[in-house]
User: What shape does this take?
Amino acid sequence: MTYRQVIRRARKAVLGAALTAALTAGVLTGSATTSQAATQGPCDIYAAGNTPCVAAHSSTRALYGSYSGALYQVRRGTDGATRDIGVLSAGGYADAAAQDSFCAGTTCVITVVYDQSGKGNHLTQAPGGGAAGGPDNLANAFQAPVTVGGHKAYGVYVAPGTGYRNNHTNGIATGDQPEGMYAIFDGTHFNSGCCFDYGNAETSNNDDGNGTMEALYFGNSKAWGWGSGNGPWVMADLENGLFSGVNRGFNANDPSVSNRFLTAMLKGGPNQWALRGGDAQAGSLSTFYNGIRPTAGGYNPMKKQGAIILGIGGDNSKWAQGTFYEGVMTSGYPSDATENAVQANITAAGYTSGSTGIGTLTPGSRISLQATTAPCCTSHYLRHDDADSKVVISATNSASSGLDKADATWIVRAGLANSSCVSFESANSPGRFLRHFDYQLYLNTDNGGGDFAQDATFCPTQGNSGTGTSFRSVNFPSKFLRHYNYTAYVAANGGSNSWDSTTSWAADTSWTVARPWG
Ligand code: AHR
Assistant: This one.
């Protein structure tokens, strides 16, 4: 059976009796168990509300109760081979184990996020645009591990420079036609760059003027609009403006939201639009704005062009970061009741952080790294400095400040350049990783590039002193993560740099993987 036939068959089954039940069954009460595949997906609910999905993207689960096709495609570094990642069962969760085995010992990027709606609106590597050249980077397939309904899955991790797009869509709203959309984001992973978006954009890759976009935005940019607090905010990117409400700048009703899993919703039709959001793990949606189009000129009527973007602005502005787990776009303006039922389905899906432990080197685990060199340093832990820039060791104990403890806490990630090794993401500065540059260690934002991935990947080995664990640089295999003069480097056992000193090298490069301070 071809991919299209699978979709058609799946949709036909769904559009039967099950649909009419969708708005009245468990989805309204969120009664589905989290350990089993959903019998109804968000797109079944939208269809029952007469606002069917025309794009349905997720790397974590099926968005129709009977969808059994591919969710996304990965490409591995060693030989460039690709593999579709499907679901464990119809309507179920991603087969993350297929990715793990296909990508073992190498790196993988997400090349396609498939459209489950049958419209063929797949997302692929974004081309260059008016604001920035391309093609954009592809997401590291291991960088956003998550658990959904008790099953391991991976989100789409957008480092700055990463972007997906489809300029040749089918069924997506154009002009002033009504549409709705939602997405689940990581509410702790954002920045103020333009523009971490998901939704409707220009088919030209250019800024074609006010009203030529209608996309969800998440982040703490204040370049256009903003809401209450310090952000981040869910806003609507309507082109030449991120709107938090009817005004171009500040709108008090758009709150700062930073749920680990965040539901963001946007809908727009002739002279009306609404922005809603909530915790994707529990509870209901709040309405941040519901009313007429912005008073600024050019947004009524809208001139939507119908491309789909993920992770970038309409003109390929690609300075933002964020994480996407799932999202859909509909034809027609969904009712609040339909969206509320979708939120119940989302909370029942069972998103959790995917952390598999504390104090271990398993991806997702929170750890601290304790120096083992006696007598100077055994009370010292690896941390980034107060400027969040350099990496040092300093004494840390239960009396240390919360900030100092958090600065000494790391989240283990599958190695950015080799999934069998590890990378260390700062616990209190999401998106920033331990990496070496000129052999010294820094805390830098992942720019999505191959060099950064290499510089941020370390392969654990038996401790060089016979104690604990040592971390071999993946691109300089003779060098290990070392503290020297209380500063962190990658160092060889003897070499031209002062920190390659053989004195105490074995102890300085051996670390205790400890319970996290923060
Ligand atoms: O509207 C905000 C941004 O402005 C758009 O995403 C981009 O196309 C333009 O630079």
User: Anything to note?
Assistant: The pocket of alpha-L-arabinofuranose is lined by residues 131, 194-195, 207, 237, 239-242, 313-315, 317 (CB under 6 Å). The CA atoms of residues 468 and 512 lie 5 Å apart.
